[in-house]
Amino acid sequence: MMRLSPGKWMLTLWLILFGGLVSACQPAPTTQSTEIAPSRTLPPPAQTRTLPTQTATPAASLTPTQPSSLLEVPASDLRGLTITFWHSAAGESEALLQDFATEFNQVNTWGITVQPVGHAGLGMLDEQVRLALEENRLPGLIAAYTDQALLWEVNGAELADLTPYVSDPVWGLSQSDQQDFYPIFWAHDLVRRSTNGSKLTTLRLGVPWYRSALVLIYNRTWAEELGFRTYPDTPAQFRRQVCAAAQANRSDQDAQNDGTGGWLVKNDPLLLLGWIQAFGGELEGEDGTGLTFYTPAAEEAVQYLANLITNGCAWSADDETPPEAFANRRTLGWIGSLANLSIQENALEQANNNDEWVVLPLPSTTGSQNIVAYGPALMVPKSDPAHELGAWLFVRWLLSAEKQAVWAELNGVFPVRSEALRQVRLNAGQAAQWEQALVWLPKARSEPATPSWRAVRGLMSDALEQILLPGFQENQAASLLKKLDQISGEIEANLR
Q1: Which residues lie closer than 8 Å to 449 by C-beta, 6 or more apart?
Q2: Residues 199, 296: one domain?
Q3: Span 162-182, mean pLDDT?
Q4: What is the CATH number of the domain that holds 470?
Q5: What is the value of pTM for the model shown?
Q6: 455 and 391, same structural domain?
Q7: Phi/psi of residue 216, nearest 5 degrees
Q8: Domain encompassing residue 473
Q9: Which of 154, 96, 107, 105 has the alpha carbon at shortest distance from 126?
Q10: What is the rounded CA–CA span in Å between residue 250 and residue 248?
């Protein structure tokens, strides 16, 4: 069977999925008044729970000190190696990564040289890896998302199982170092593969580098003025509050802000995933082999989003950025990434807006902290034992708590180690809102890790676009999700 590229599957979506759905624009019904009695006082915006402090672990020495390695690679084989490192960092991040490599090249005792090579975004990186596969010239180290790597494997890439390197008594990470990683991130790159017939073996395709996350950016001051004294912990509470904000803008003297005030939706495939999780749903099955969209939780999530749009409590805009809208009280809250926090702070300053704002997890019906985390892993393509070990030694260097902390401070992301997080907090290098987000880090949930996810997440973005149309009806939720199941299933089958 001929394999279709992810791009062709995106075209399939428009022809099959959205062509059959009704999207005629209709006037939005009048929003009902929403008033609830306050139930508890909001805590100060910068107040956070202190994360458990762990004893700092000294960075692993670059010179092996224990006598018996299980890898059977003599140190002499490492001398003079050159490791090419492909990544998608840019700007200051790329410069910092080059500084890390330069320092490593200077201090490692074997004369290993790491050469970082940047690519303009994950898309360009993905394209370069595919071209390299055709020419059998993969680099020694790649920073990419796990689902990308799984798709590369389908197309012939071979990635080293890093389990022996992580656990090696000479070259690996100590038990205390391994336990310092947040479990949800540490486990994300583990895959189960069949070997020797039916026997399943767990392999490590990579190790987590850093994480960003989707968070709710929320105007605490405006919410209090609207009569709300609690954060929107549930979808029902979120609906009441954004509907109240939308009603406030319709009722004021400014006709220019009519149709705003509620939730300004920024289309992101992870946003739809976050709302499905908000209603207790999951896309990925326990075996990690496929995705399922048509579930009661997912249907409820889609119906909920459609209801917000229909009742004028949510809106989207092509000509206005969420940070600007938030700074001008045209949205009570919006869902963005950690990287948006500094942008939001600047927008409020430019608008001379002194409203207090906080960072919250996405609302949830389950009572759990709903935060979707995502980020790249460090992966080593198979080559020869010496080059694989050389690449791993630089990975170990990047994973030190010290390097993790510096990277997190510059990029406004989560480190994946608790000791690194402790160092970041001591340095106070981030805004109060970033500090608030740290509370939710231990409970973060990762995006699916399947070969089809890279293509399917694009379909989710298109599906969300369809949901945001005024003519989309709640009773179309089941049809939409079934189409997503159909197309994602075809993608999975095409990848086998």
Answers
A1: 146, 147, 150, 188, 189, 191, 284, 288
A2: no
A3: 95
A4: 3.40.190.10
A5: 0.82
A6: no
A7: -90, 115
A8: 213-373+447-495
A9: 154
A10: 5
Q: What is the Cα–Cα distance from 259 to 330, expressed in whole angstroms? A: 9
The vertex-270 CA angle with 269 and 276, nearest 5°, equals 105
Q: Does a structural domain hold residue 48?
A: no
pLDDT in tens, 61-112: 455 544 588 898 999 999 999 999 999 999 999 999 999 999 999 999 999 9
Per-residue pLDDT of 6-44, as tens digits, reads 444 444 444 444 455 544 334 333 333 333 333 333 444
Number of structural domains the chain divides into: 2
Q: How many whole angstroms separate alpha carbon 345 and alpha carbon 207?
A: 32
Give the integer Cα–Cα distance in Å for 429 and 67. 40
Phi, psi of 75 (to 5 degrees): -60, -30
> Which one of 365, 399, 433 terminates a domain?
399
Q: Are residues 264 and 310 in the same domain?
A: yes
Question: Length of the chain in residues, anyone?
Answer: 496
Q: Within this chain, do residues 225 and 324 fall inside the same structural domain, yes or no? A: yes
Residues 244 and 101 in one domain: no
Q: List pLDDT tens digits, range 192-231.
A: 876 666 677 889 999 999 999 999 999 999 999 999 999 9
Neighbouring C-beta atoms of residue 164, cutoff 10 Å = 17
The answer to whether residue 29 is domain-embedded is no
Asked if the structure places residue 70 within a domain, the reply is no
Predicted pLDDT at 28: 39
Q: Which residues are CB-neighbours of 200 under 8 A, at least 6 positions away?
A: 192, 193, 194
Rounded Cα gap, residues 307 and 305, in angstroms = 5
- The confidence score (pLDDT) of residue 238 equals 97
Question: Is there a domain that residue 188 lies in?
Answer: yes
